[in-house]
Design brief:
Mean pLDDT: 96
Shape: globular
CATH class of the largest domain: Alpha Beta
Low-confidence stretches: none
Number of strands: 16
Largest sheet: 10 strands, mixed
Number of helices: 3
CATH architecture of the largest domain: 3-Layer(aba) Sandwich
Structural class: mainly beta
CATH topology of the largest domain: Trna Endonuclease, Chain: A, domain 1
């Protein structure tokens, strides 16, 4: 067995399956977690479990696939959003589950480290998971809005490395058009600088691309940091 926390999964493997999905069109986003959509001639509310800005996706008239999921204020939840010729997964509740499929047995989830919570711990490896759907000219970029939380996670992982631990940031890129990755300096300069500082400090980065086909999310490939 190779060293490190990750196990090999072949390209094309389905990592999440969805049943009945309903096609709708985006109308508006009255707050961070609610969108108004048109479905079968009716305006309905759907829960959006994605705190990102998503301004490239949430365009009036754009296609959104929703599923039945009763909540406090809605009966539907956003699952996929169309982005040009592909769909992106926009539900953060699936990120840890998908990431865990690539970890070797024996990991722990939701590990508290001082004032941070890191997604996974495997042996001496701390692993934080971040998701990305924003792709421009084939380059996946994170974050799509200022993320103090992501910056703080980078600082936590850097400190863990200084203490003798090992650390990874696993970027799950839910846009199959991604060919390479870079931090989004235009949207969050502080995080982007901390990202490169973390690399220089010994924090490792892993970038995995996923696509959507026939209501299934599949693993496509690993990509690398853009020059």
């Amino acid at each position: 067995m190779s060293e490190g926390p990750f196990k090999k999964i072949n390209n094309g493997v389905i990592v999440e399956r969805f049943g009945d999905l309903f096609k709708s069109t985006f109308i508006s986003r009255p707050n961070r977690f609610i969108v108004n959509v048109m479905q079968d001639g009716n305006i309905i509310k759907a829960h959006l479990h994605d705190p990102g800005r998503l301004e490239e996706l949430l365009i009036p008239g754009n296609e959104i696939l929703i599923r039945k999921l009763k909540g406090i204020k809605t009966d539907y939840s956003v699952t996929f959003i169309k982005n040009n010729n592909v769909y992106t997964l926009n539900d953060a509740r699936f990120h840890s589950k998908i990431a865990s499929l690539f970890l070797k047995p024996g990991y722990r989830s939701e590990v508290t480290v001082k004032d941070s919570r890191i997604d996974f711990l495997y042996g001496n490896y701390y692993i934080e998971v971040k998701s990305c759907t924003f792709v421009k000219d084939g380059i996946a970029m994170f974050p799509d809005a200022v993320s103090k939380r992501a910056t703080h996670h980078m600082e936590t992982l850097m400190n863990l490395v200084k203490e003798g631990h090992k650390a990874y940031v696993l970027f799950l890129i839910f846009n199959e058009n991604a060919k390479s990755f870079m931090p989004n300096m235009k949207r969050d300069k502080v995080f982007s600088n901390k990202f490169y500082e973390a690399i220089n400090s010994g924090v490792k980065m892993k970038y995995m691309v996923f696509g959507v086909k026939n209501k299934n999310v599949f693993y496509k490939d690993n990509i690398y940091l853009s020059d």
